[in-house]
Amino acid sequence: MVLKIRLARFGKRNAPFYNIVVAQARSARNSKPLEVLGTYDPIPKPPPASSSAPADGEKKVKDIKLDISRAKYWLGVGAQPSDPAWRLLSMIGLLEPKYRAPPSKNDQEEQNR
Questions:
Q1: Element (H, E) at 88
Q2: What are the residues facing 21 on neighbouring strands?
Q3: Is 84 in contact with 98 (CB distance < 8 Å)?
């Protein structure tokens, strides 16, 4: 049984909301998962609990909630993350980033010295 860690989409049109789930690889995107590991809200929102009025220059954040111990367990038993799930898990620090920017010419010149 091949397992995948992937995103299941919920929410309204133009307002997506995702559950981070563990499911069988051959099942449909929104079918019943084996386990829900967390949630991901890709729409940037202002940071929570600002005591004063929010400043105009304040950076908005995307919300990721994840049960890290269960994610480590599923990765340990061989569940393969999809590309978007890999990106989220690498942002949290569970996996190495999959794609790295190629070094620029200046970086290569410095390494050759």
A1: helix 83-92
A2: 6, 36
A3: no
Phi and psi at residue 22, in whole multiples of 5°? Answer: -110, 125
How far is the C-alpha of 104 from the C-alpha of 3, rounded, in Å? 37
Per-residue confidence (pLDDT) for residue 47, from 0 to 100? 81
Please report how the helices 83-92 and 68-76 are oriented relative to each other, as an axis angle in degrees rounded to 10.
130
Asked if residue 31 lies in contact with residue 44, where contact means CB atoms within 8 angstroms, the answer is: no
Q: What is the DSSP string of 8-25?
A: EEEEETTEEEEEEEEEET
In this prediction the pTM is: 0.75
Look at 106 and 9; give whichever has higher pLDDT: 9
């410095």: which residue's tokens?
110
